[in-house]
Design a protein that fits this description.
Length: about 500
């Protein structure tokens, strides 16, 4: 019988990084903190002196072997790393953290990103009491969810277990060479012809990994150990690919293997300083709430107004949900309209004004907006008091919105109250976003002593297209290949941009 053995009486003190008392705070504001730091560190020297090292470029040379293994585990869990947890930081590890930082934080790797990885990894290890366990009958150590491991019915050849919180399954068994060959041959046939299996064959060791049409991956590792072929078999579906990668990467012949953040080490120090920064920003009276710092159009006692644009020949109009929230009567260009659908997740609303049927229709860009792409924002600011459509120019300044929100993007085109719901157009006159909010300059100035310039947000065009499709309106996709002049863009925009008022 194959059994798991404890790691012995070796005590590391902090086997995993302690999350208390900052766990909830760190995990809840993992991305939002970076946006706020851009303002706080620039204006408060006391913050900058103490915390600016967190924003230095990530350098693996500062970290120990154990710390790098811990970061590799975090990158594997996040789906960015597919390699051994060996602490050898090479090109594969570098590419993994570069992809992680670009995807999660829209930047190059920084030391604070390592802290966030450490906290999320520690949170994972604590969740189901994951530990490195040595299995004497296999001659291997690997990660095991000791708090959520369920024993499944055994077969003639394997002892089988399942993870209660995912699709991960593991099986262990021993046999002769022919038995092991048959197991690996089965794994090779498990995959599809479109996705060739991964195989390694060395004296005394064999690895096979294959994925079937259902998105389930089977990983088999055999080791010639104590006169037998000891085999570990893992499987999981695509949604748990990171978990499977982490467990398979953790496999080692080291009897006393462990994964932890050493107390007093550099990673522990960076994580602790990050916790201090988060706590300081929570307590600092000059650090405003990010949600409060974002200002959509306000509603007054006489009603509210905003902007929209025509998206179908039948008179459908797209705008923000907050523009028409609580409205008893809605008008589009002084024509009665009715509310068909809203989405609080996207902050979008779909209206229908039959009298607008046949009016010019906005077309959407087929591709997503790009960083630093020129844009124009179109709308009716200040309840239309400025007289007609107002057009401002700028660029996409970030591919994500406030706090890393992936449904929105940041732009420099100025917007004012009343612009909400208006289209954001490319140089070809195609919709790439919907104006949604701006950073409250007065609030930020009062808090930080500085006025942020042109920090405005728009719902991404692909989110708007999805919302329309879900509500039975097929967005029209532009086919223009030629850029329009600023004058031509403004003239085009006036044909489909509309003024919305509600009571």
């Amino acid at each position: 019988m194959v059994s798991g053995q404890p790691r012995g009486d070796r005590d590391h003190g902090a086997a995993v990084l302690s999350l208390e008392p900052f766990a909830a705070l760190i995990m809840a504001r993992l991305k939002k903190i970076l946006l706020l730091c851009a303002f706080v560190l620039a204006t408060l020297p006391s913050f900058a002196q103490e915390f600016e090292r967190l924003f230095d470029p990530f350098s693996e040379n500062r970290y120990s072997h154990e710390e790098l293994r811990f970061l590799q585990l975090g990158l594997a869990l996040e789906g960015y790393y597919n390699g051994l947890l060996d602490g050898a930081w090479g090109p594969i590890s570098n590419r993994a953290i570069e992809r992680y930082s670009a995807q999660e934080f829209d930047s190059a790797p920084q030391e604070i990103h390592a802290a966030f990885l450490a906290y999320s990894t520690a949170d994972f290890l604590e969740s189901d009491h994951w530990e490195m366990r040595y299995f004497e009958g296999l001659g291997l150590s690997f990660l095991v969810p000791t708090g959520a491991l369920i024993e499944a019915p055994q077969t003639d050849d394997f002892l089988n277990y399942e993870h209660a919180g995912s699709s991960l399954k593991l099986s262990i068994g021993v046999g002769n060479r022919i038995w092991a060959e048959n197991v690996h041959q089965y794994a090779v046939g498990f995959g599809t012809s479109q996705r060739a299996p991964y195989t390694v064959r060395k004296p005394g060791m064999a690895i096979t990994s294959a994925t079937n049409r259902m998105g389930q991956t089977l990983y088999v590792r055999s080791l010639f150990w104590q006169g037998h072929w000891a085999t570990l078999m893992l499987s999981a579906y695509d949604k748990d690919a990171g978990l499977l990668a982490a467990v398979s990467a953790s496999i080692t012949q080291e009897r006393y293997a462990s994964l932890y953040v050493p107390k007093g080490g550099y990673l522990f120090s960076v994580a602790a300083t990050t916790a201090e920064l988060l706590e300081a920003l929570e307590e600092e009276p000059s650090a405003p709430s990010l949600d409060a710092a974002v200002t959509p159009d306000a509603e007054d006692e006489n009603g509210s107004s905003g902007t929209g644009f025509v998206v179908s020949d039948a008179g459908h109009v797209l705008t923000n949900a907050h523009v028409v929230e609580g409205c008893r009567n809605i008008s589009v260009n002084d024509v009665e309209a009715r509310l068909l659908s809203t989405s609080t997740s996207f902050d979008l609303a779909l209206l229908k004004a039959d009298m607008l049927a046949g009016q010019a229709v906005a077309t959407f860009a087929s591709a997503t907006a790009r960083l630093n792409q020129d844009v124009i924002a179109v709308g009716y600011p200040y309840a239309g008091l400025l007289g007609g459509v107002n057009v401002t120019r700028g660029a996409v300044s970030s591919m994500t919105g406030l706090g890393g929100d992936e449904t929105t993007m940041q732009m420099t085109a100025p917007v004012q109250p009343g612009n909400s719901g208006g289209p954001v157009l490319s140089d070809k006159g195609e919709v790439i976003g919907v104006v949604v909010s701006k950073l409250d300059a007065l609030l930020m100035a009062d808090a930080l002593g500085d006025i942020p310039q042109n920090v405005n947000f728009a719902i991404r065009g692909e989110a708007a297209r999805l919302f329309l499709s879900l509500n039975g309106v097929e967005p029209q996709i532009g086919t223009t290949r030629v850029s329009l002049s600023p004058v031509e863009l403004a003239e085009m925009a006036t044909r489909f941009t509309v003024f919305i008022s509600c009571e």
